[in-house]
Amino acid sequence: MDAMARLLITRREAVLAGAAALSASALPAPAAALGQMDTAIRNVFGEATIRAGKVTLDLPPLVENGNTVPMTVSVESPMTKDNYVKAIHVFNDKNPQPNVISLKLSPRAGKAVIATRIRLAGTQKLTAIAEMSDGTLWSGTEEVVVTLAACLEDLP
Amino acid sequence: MEKRLRLVAPALAIVLAAIASLAFAEIPLSQRRSGYEQMSREVKAMQDDDTSNPASLSVLDGEALWTRREGSAQKSCADCHHDAETSMRGVSARYPAFDAAKRRPLDIEQRINLCRTEKQQATPLPFESRDLLALTAYLGKQSRGMPIAVISDDDTKPFIEAGRQIYARRQGQLNLSCQNCHDDNAGQKLAGVELPQGHPTGYPLYRLEWQSLGSLQRRLRNCLFGMRAEPYAYGADEYVDLELFLMWRARGMTVETPAVRP
Amino acid sequence: MTARALINVPRKAKRGDVIEIKTLISHVMESGFRTGTNGKTIPRDIITSFACTYNGEEIFATQFYPAVAANPFVTFYTIATDNGTLAFTWIGDNGFEVTQEAKIVVE
Asked: C104 forms bridges with which residues in the sheet?
């Protein structure tokens, strides 16, 4: 590859190649300590069972700038008086703090969908957990590649 | 600081050093593209929907300032200019414009400050202050969708030429010119960033990197930093000449103010 | 100048319709994790909560953390039940509090 071609490789490719190399060398995963996200989730929900499903996190898979990342959370559920989504909590794995946003819903929402914009300090996983009116917990997880992290240290 | 440019500029300097001769060509009018077209679907959506575009908040601030009495004249912009939707329609699209008294072009910020000092008898608003950005965003919005139409005539031509020369001149520790990035290498990806053609179609605009609204001069300052060149002082003639040249280079393109950029 | 908010609620809706509500407010959302040029941490200054009432009854409430982007934008849904007023309140650090209302006609 000549110098020009090398420099013209996109950062996305570099990041993906790096990620692939990393996951290849890191397998099999050691029974490591819980990451900040899992710890935070356990702090909120204790030992309660959290099942994967019903919750969809919608984020662009690759973002250029971690300062403002659009995120939509939707929960597949009726929204009736006795069967609805009571709360949604979103957590992250790499920001200085594990919480992103928490929200309370009522049957009056009509549907359990919310959208906002968040900061991501680098490529990471996000998990949203929905608390249903019957007390069950459901989760959805999404991974986002950030080519430029949120400005958490530098002054503009 | 300009993180993206911190990455891009050195990469480009290396690439340019490796190439002996450089084919330079101005971008044909029909091939000009706004930075908008290079943005992701999500960032485009942010610009397109007013409730989602954070710059809309500044437009509202500007609308409130338009009717606020200021200075020892105790006059508001609206007292003289009435409804901005009519009186300011298309105005930002033809700035910087020649000012006969000053014998040189003024950008829209300077033009607003001229009314502040001479018509309202008030102090000029500092560059990048919330109020000046708000007023320029509000005025710019009145030209949204209209073609850029700066005037090129005997008065302005020398200044367009001066702007072009700054644009074409290599400067800074990396020995780059604006042209190296925005004409010669526009559309190329360097260090993951796609180089835009560098058209000033959306200013003032909300940059995700800034997490706020900023003027075209702030953008140019960022590029100069990236080139490791000394930025000019806000309001310097060099900036206004560059702004005029960039607007002339973008003539006929659509005003997007207030835009969003990564 | 005070904080400015933009709210998008349909002016009219049919009873029972699920309507979309979009909100945007100006705020720096200073995370408290950034360091200033003097080497000191810039103190946290964020909006901590945002809630909406519909004719006085709370229909939606959120807690924000520093991970919410500057100039917070939130979209959510509610069922159009009656004519009336939706009130939106943002509360944050340093005594920040903004309330704004929107009217809705339900047929």
From this structure: C84
